[in-house]
Amino acid sequence: MKPTALVAGNWKMNGLAASQAELEALGTYLSDGAPADCDVLICPPFTLVAAFAANAADGIAVGAQDCHTNTSGAHTGDISAEMLKDAGATYVIVGHSERRADHGEGDSLVKAKAEAVHGQGMKAIVCVGETEAERDAGNTLDIVLGQLAGSLPDAATAANTVVAYEPVWAIGTGRTPTVEDVAEVHTAIRSALVARFGEAGNSFSILYGGSVKPSNADELMNAANVNGALVGGASLKASDFNGIIDAYRK
Ligand code: PEP
Fold first, then answer.
1. Which atom of ligand 1 has the smallest separation from the CA of 231?
2. Which domain range does residue 141 map to?
3. 236: domain CATH number?
4. Is the pLDDT reported for residue 250 higher than 80?
5. pLDDT in tens, 88-142
6. Which atom, in ligand 1's list, is nearest to the CA of 212?
7. Which residues approach ligand 1 with their CB closer than 6 A?
8. Which residues are within 8 A (CB) of 8 and not within 5 positions of it... i.e. 6 or more apart?
9. Does 188 reside within a domain?
10. Mean pLDDT, to the nearest integer, of 53-74?
């Protein structure tokens, strides 16, 4: 089965109730524009997941940006996958580099979070990516493939898991790897998925993330083994996000 293309917006710690206007505008773009050959997902902050899920136009899925490994319990300030599902989420991002860096999350925790997401019948978007120092040292593939091996549950399938390659140095910086560099890493991820999951590894969607914007989306989305984008800054405005979705309107 061919991977499903996905354009996913990660709003990070941005968005208030009034931001629902952007969700509505995105719905209008999607219904008025030419059909896009991709799935579309918005991951707002926790506070907006339920409202967005209740109000998103057809064709827009709603997800969250993190979850706890447990279903419930004494974990002040945390949110469980079950709560997110209850709020209407269908995807959860796990292992984003900002979680790995700011909260010290390692591969085994990321894997446990992905398992918690799977346990609720949702899709986990598992993020991997090298820092600038790791790239400069020539360790990109070792780092990325190591994170992939450690963060993906054995029960991962194309139906419950999406992989996102996000070079840390490209996130929010306006810098992107060359298309050749993106293709090299995505092709290495694809090979690792096939080595681990057999032929089924060819069906996983592998997103690129890091300073994707309307002006570079077309060439990045056409790189080998790129099956969509995980978008931060440019997902906050419906017009920009729609301009990225344009890469899938042919
Ligand atoms: C992200 O945080 O997942 C991301 C890709 O951010 P940006 O698009 O702003 O680089």
1. 8
2. 6-248
3. 3.20.20.70
4. no
5. 999 999 999 999 999 999 999 999 999 999 999 999 999 999 999 999 999 999 9
6. 8
7. 10, 166, 171-172, 209-212, 230-234
8. 40, 41, 42, 43, 63, 91, 93, 125, 162, 164, 207, 228, 229, 230, 231, 235
9. yes
10. 98
